[in-house]
């Protein structure tokens, strides 16, 4: 049978006292129960513990499970517990348990004894919210007294399960007047000693020059992009005099800018040059990552405020541990400090929603956060496609408070509460954030705290509608639980 609605549960220690004639320590215990709707039937499964029950040899106790709601009743097959003599009589009568639609068991007093009860009755709508009761007949003379001597077993609740679907409050990101992007890198060019001219085929220069050409060409070949600025900053290592290093850093940067200007027409784009005579910050960072003799002493010299004269500081560096560590960093660290950092800045034109939808999956970096939001609006709220847009947005803008708030909302709609809380940690306080936090509590089952926040948000125009609706969600969830 196809099971379309199911309510299951473990029910231990539910005890039902018999009538006055059978009271004492005699108890019938339901150890396990399951009630479910299967197609057009209500199915009841129970494991009945008879261990505490004592039945005289000539006596019979009949239990009649009954589904009840108000005046509506549906009687299930009886459970007949016979003493020894009554069991023999039952067998001699050659009664067919299946044909008579009844369960019969011989009670062996003083022993552990259990039996499984499985029955079904035609399902009626009123059974969704009902209870299973037990009518007890201790004389074995029929069912004239139905409704007397009843004991309630357990409630039945197999109505349509309530699925939480809270409303979220998304924030529309501000549109960028001009979408400015940048690509950057570092070129580690080799120059002959004290030279500033670029030799394209010298040592590793072919590879380093190729890197900067590819960066520029990736923007030039982008039909949506226009280069607005190219900036190059040259760095030298602390080796040698500060004055000479300043000259080298500046003119090597100029040489690289001249090289790329000779290859491309940048139109009205700005060309900027900057330089750092000696890259002491880079030296400190590199020393922290390598294993070198007298590492702490070297770092202490690099970090010291004195001497201000960097030539004197370099001299002190050479004296550490007799000069051996300096020779090591001269060979292994200094070459990486001689570099030219470049940034290619460009702007991207704005896109229609249809164009943005195509780029979202092929080249999302072209889009603004607002354009991604507009794409999301073309999908059904809460749908997989809708949620995926906001997940892409937060990957492209991982530190943006709006992208994190909206991604938290979609995570909650997908039931990913822990992920939502991580996103919310990057979102500043706002009514929308507090609404999302309340929804997280609701999904976790903290109905009281969630409702408190929803009520407080009724006075916030930006989330009033969602707060009122979500209070109804709390109410419906409580009704289901009760």
Residue stretches low in confidence (pLDDT < 50, at least 5 long) are 1-25, 140-148
Rg is 40 Å
Shape: elongated
The quaternary organization reads as single chain
Helices, by number, come to: 17
Distance between the termini: 29 Å
β-strand percent reads 15-25%
Sheet of most strands: 6 strands, mixed
Record field, number of beta strands: 15
Integer average pLDDT: 88
Structural class: alpha+beta
Helix content: 25-40%
Describe this structure in words.
This protein is of the alpha+beta class. The chain contains 17 helices and 15 strands. Strands 5, 6, 7, 8, 10 and 11 form a six-stranded mixed sheet that branches. Strands 1, 2, 3, 4 and 9 form a five-stranded antiparallel sheet that branches. α10 packs across α11. The longest helix has 22 residues, at 242-263. The chain is elongated and about 120 Å long. The chain starts with a strand and ends with a helix.
SSE blueprint and pairings:
Layout: E1 3-9, E2 14-17, E3 27-38, E4 41-49, E5 60-69, E6 72-75, E7 79-82, H1 84-92, H2 97-100, E8 103-106, E9 114-122, E10 129-137, E11 150-157, E12 179-187, H3 205-220, E13 225-235, H4 242-263, E14 270-276, H5 280-287, H6 295-303, H7 310-319, H8 324-332, H9 334-337, E15 340-348, H10 353-362, H11 369-376, H12 384-396, H13 401-413, H14 417-424, H15 431-444, H16 447-456, H17 464-481
Parallel strand pairs: 7-8, 13-14
Antiparallel strand pairs: 1-3, 2-3, 3-4, 4-9, 5-6, 5-7, 5-10, 10-11, 12-15, 13-15
Helix pairs in contact: 5-6, 10-11, 11-12, 12-13, 13-14, 13-15, 14-15, 15-16, 16-17
